[in-house]
Amino acid sequence: MNTALDLMLLGQQAKTAARRLATLDTVTKNNALLAIAAALLTHQDAILAANAADLAAARARGTSDALLDRMLLTPERLAAIAADTCNVAALPDPVGEIFDQADLPNGLRLHKRRTPLGVVGVIYEARPNVTVDIATLCLKTSNAVILRGGSDIGASVAAITIAIQGALTSVGLPATAVQSITDPDRAVVGALLRLDQYVDMIIPRGGSGLHRFCIEQSTIPVITGGLGVVHLYVDATADLERAVPLIFNAKVQRPSVCNALDTLLVHEQVAAQLLPVVAHELCAAGVELRCDPASRAILADQPAAATWRVLPADPTDFGTEFVGMILSIKLVNDLDGALEHIATHGSGHTEAILTNDPAAAERFTQEVDASAVFVNASTRFNDGGQFGLGAEVAVSTQKLHARGPMGLRELTTYKWVGAADYAVRK
Amino acid sequence: MNTALDLMLLGQQAKTAARRLATLDTVTKNNALLAIAAALLTHQDAILAANAADLAAARARGTSDALLDRMLLTPERLAAIAADTCNVAALPDPVGEIFDQADLPNGLRLHKRRTPLGVVGVIYEARPNVTVDIATLCLKTSNAVILRGGSDIGASVAAITIAIQGALTSVGLPATAVQSITDPDRAVVGALLRLDQYVDMIIPRGGSGLHRFCIEQSTIPVITGGLGVVHLYVDATADLERAVPLIFNAKVQRPSVCNALDTLLVHEQVAAQLLPVVAHELCAAGVELRCDPASRAILADQPAAATWRVLPADPTDFGTEFVGMILSIKLVNDLDGALEHIATHGSGHTEAILTNDPAAAERFTQEVDASAVFVNASTRFNDGGQFGLGAEVAVSTQKLHARGPMGLRELTTYKWVGAADYAVRK
């Protein structure tokens, strides 16, 4: 098999399909989405059998139970995925939106028109549901998509793609609007990343290693993200009683995701009052605290200290995404100390301040450079669903094109359209 | 000299400066811009002397007169550059703009706030004025900038940078907000393109070779452009009399730029009436026509044909940016033929249709995939000034972040800001 040639063909087909998709109206796209939802259910046996084969092979390789669960499809999960597809059909279609209109002195009636990007390439891990998520969001925005799921779920992705392509064909759309790369060779990812002749955007969905690989190798614009070193600063004026459940929510509600809290920064004036209560709540939930000397000194004095897991922080505990039940804690002299720490250690993902001082809130929101900055709200809100986007394609920590949660609109671009009465430039 | 280490330092300094710039109000930035305008004039002798040295060296290398003129600074040109700087001060400041506000059911009061990108890297050719253009547009948008001008103008860029940095210092701003790389070694460009730890966006200002180099080498998002293969399609319903001066404007007004017309596509029903008049006008202005067999047959029959420069087109004459007084011509059967030709040969820069049929205009604007699509308007309008942007940083032919002419707003990004009353995620 000649990977480079095969990929060129895939790219050409995707680009041709994209031209067709760009002419579709919303009703046609929504009908295709409903056909996909139905096809997932009619193809259920084939999809679940393929998934069972993937799982058996992964189990034989000694894959952990957590990863196996992430790979697993069941009739219930497949039904939920089909329901999500119907929900995408119900979302507003951003394509065709007209904005920034202007009548100019040179005679030009100008506007911007929202258009599809063209062809989107998505590289993701062993989560079969992402196949459907991304395919449907791309279809809704008239983009063709080339999918490359983790090699662990190759059979599942292939079976799902067959179902999707059958549905596309059944409503008269090109099957090549949604294509999957099933070659398990990792070199194929590198080749996909250089297919700039056909692919307009790459979205990596995975850890920071995948993101870094894409940044290094791609000649196509990459939506990067994947790393969230998240801080929350408790200012001297914060309502400490209400701070505790908020900190608990930021750390404990779902510690494995990128908007979960990693480092708690506390104004030294309120640390003695706040930290014992925080430690009481978090440690009871199983959180390990890694404390700078000043915060550790406060906690060491507490009667319950012996039952808590409080360790001295080493320097690498600041600037680390823990992706689990660990929290680093540091005292700061003031807002400037918090801003300096975040500028040094933040990853530009999610940062928060708790304060009742509007001036401190304004300085924090202005000066912290991150995709989302919260005042008196949990860091866990940095999410497409919570932001009302209806869907989340990815969370971007870069600054171009889209920053933070990306919804349907972020799968589009625009063109300038200028009309006139046979006008020439003077 | 250790280029990699020097560049790291430059990047660190730029990032530190960017933090300071992000806190500035508009008045402070405008004062700095006016100080730069004044400094260009007070440093006039030093700048012109450096420029004379660059020119002497270039002349000794046998540089063409056209390139030497592009490099040349005079007191008048320097005064015009200073005036442009004052004009940038007068433009509205996009930073801090608040948009997409929403009060969400989860208690979040959400908005997007327009913010600087951070650090911008710009690589450009032997045009000393670009140094000031880009530095001032970046300062206006609170971005730090690292400039790398062509090695031919190294002394000029260094002298201009000294003037700018002196002005910044005089108003209390960090000189490192505007830095130039004066190392003539070309390897330094490759190193700059990998400084993703510090630099948020790369803008190449030059030909397609430079753009391709940046796409291949950069780990930083690149704003690509630089190649305009521009088509104009004359539909059967077009007003042919008014089409002629428009085609003339598109081709002849400034043939060296990227929005100048390259290929004329003509509906076969109107070709016999239109083309002789077009040939008469264009050939009189010195344009060479490269025609497909059908259009050449029409022109060969004309009485004046012997005085025209009409050559048979070879396949490479379609899909080529001529950057000069050459136009390729092709007849098409209908709108579909024009759309197919543009999809195959266009570079996504600028495309136009002349038609009096609203349905044809709508199909053309919807289906043509380009940064700007014009109906009954010259392709020369694809320009930041003509679009009323006040300034043009670059013209992008890629689809992410910004497409077409980029003004001040396209030198910014946004952050999400969410405030609540100690809200937690359910």
TrEMBL record, chains A, B:
GO terms for biological process: L-proline biosynthetic process. InterPro entries: Ald_DH/histidinol_DH, Ald_DH_C, Ald_DH_N, Aldehyde_DH_dom, G-glutamylP_reductase_CS, Glu-5-SA_DH, GPR_dom. Residues 12-281, 319-416 form the Aldehyde dehydrogenase domain. The keyword Ribonucleoprotein does not apply. One of its GO terms (molecular function) is glutamate-5-semialdehyde dehydrogenase activity. It catalyses: L-glutamate 5-semialdehyde + phosphate + NADP(+) = L-glutamyl 5-phosphate + NADPH + H(+). It comes from the Bacteria. It holds the Pfam family Aldedh. One of its GO terms (cellular component) is cytoplasm. Pathway: Amino-acid biosynthesis; L-proline biosynthesis; L-glutamate 5-semialdehyde from L-glutamate: step 2/2. The keyword Cell inner membrane does not apply. Its main location: cytoplasm. Keywords: Amino-acid biosynthesis, Cytoplasm, NADP, Oxidoreductase, Proline biosynthesis. Its EC number is 1.2.1.41. It is found in: Cytoplasm. NCBIfam families: PRK00197.1 (NF001221), proA (TIGR00407). PANTHER family: DELTA-1-PYRROLINE-5-CARBOXYLATE SYNTHASE (PTHR11063:SF8), GLUTAMATE SEMIALDEHYDE DEHYDROGENASE (PTHR11063). Catalyzes the NADPH-dependent reduction of L-glutamate 5-phosphate into L-glutamate 5-semialdehyde and phosphate. The product spontaneously undergoes cyclization to form 1-pyrroline-5-carboxylate. Belongs to the gamma-glutamyl phosphate reductase family. This is Gamma-glutamyl phosphate reductase.
